[in-house]
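Subject: sequence -> structure tokens, single chain

Hey, anyone have a minute? Need the predicted structure for the following. Not urgent.
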Amino acid sequence: MRRIRLRTLLLLINLLILALPLAGIWFLRLYESALIRQTEAELVAQAAMLAGAYKIERQILVDAGNLPPEPETGAGAAPLLPDAPANRTTWLDLAEDPVLPPAPDPVSSATPALALAAAVGAAVTPVLREAQPVTLAAMRIVDRRGIVTATTGDDLGASLAGLDEIRRALAGEPVSTLRRYGETPPGLTGGFTLRAALRVYVASPVLVDGRVVAAILLSRTPRDLAHAIYGRRLDIAVMTALLLATGLFLALAVSRLVTRPLGLVVAQAQRAAAGETGIVTPLARPGPRELAELSEAVTRMAAILERRADYIRSFAAHVSHEFKTPLAGAKGALELLEDHGAGMDESERRHFISVVGASLDRLDLLVRRLVDLARADMMRQGRAAPRPIAASLEALAIRYRARGLTVRITPTTAQTVLTDDALEMMLGSLLDNVLRHAGSGAAAAITAEQAADRLALIVTDDGPGVPAADAARIFEPFFTTARAQGGTGLGLPIVRAIAAALGGTVELMSGAGRGAAFEIRLPNPPTA
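Reply:
Had a minute. Here:
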């Protein structure tokens, strides 16, 4: 099966990640919210300018004495606001603010506008109509009863009192809202889309001496996202090209950082698989952390496999040597019996038969010990409920007392999750060594000590001990000084293999005086 190259995969991933922000401009409405907020800010600024112009014109008319000001008290007076409105800020957000239905049309009003408000409206109407082609906003000014006194449309004298924005503005509250937009006013140009589905409304109160005397209502469609992007198409094209170049560069750089070290690791592994030794080493420049860890892990694995291969070759040579002696003895004895058996007396025939039997017994013992060693190498510590170890130790001592070895068990409350089979293989191998080296009249002692993190099993004897010259080799397979007594040199390697498989150690204790002393340390495993 053809697999995609990592370099191609990384390139595709980087290009996909690069394309996501560009596609997000079209599918997400973040930029649209920015355009709406920009439109709102422009309308707020325009409303502030119109409010200032309105108050100036109003004061001019009042000072001229042609029209009286609106009453400040009594019926028809504007309410006095307790606090001046705070500075106006923009806050519309397309993702959070509701979109209201289209604004209702102004309704005819039988009530005329207030005289002063109507005069001020007539004075500022030329300003509204002059600014409208530039601002592209629909502008209306209403008196404090909601009657339109100035407009860029044809609704002069109509009532907007039913519009929520006007009601809130006449109560002294600056308002910004989003409404759905129906018909498009004709003839507006200047880069703003007139097919937009939304319209921004801004209503601001006009305050004089803390009283609302009028309200200004501005509305405009925000710039359409497509038109906004089209207006910056050259900048966006340059940015896109830069992003693509950057993405391509990053993809190639990451590809080199990843594929080159991987290629070196693969090459080392292939040479190791071809039989070369010592070829797998940590990379000098592995690149990312994961590749450094991979290189180190492969190096450790190769070293372990090489050591295992060396061990197997050495072990095979030892097994061949150990098996060769009894096989040669049995074969020679059988050949002599076959060639000269008829001329031998009974004692000679029994001697050669006993040689064959002893050789077969030796082979049987070697096979059983090799099986024990294989089981020890494969042993793993599982989860089980801890149990007292004293009963298992006492049962082991009874079996060896029957074979002539005095075994003393130090009273203990230690607990273990090891099976009796595992204990038998470890401690039995040590007690067998005592029998072979010290004889059946020897004595041994087993002590179990438990701490928070480990279990220690100490086996001591009163035998001749381990010569200093042999101490460094006693854990080597097939090394034994009691071959004549039936030693195989596999007992201590079995103990070490079991301890290692369970995460522990076994050591010959120094300074123990007469005899030998071994300490097995095993970690306390997690319980079931």
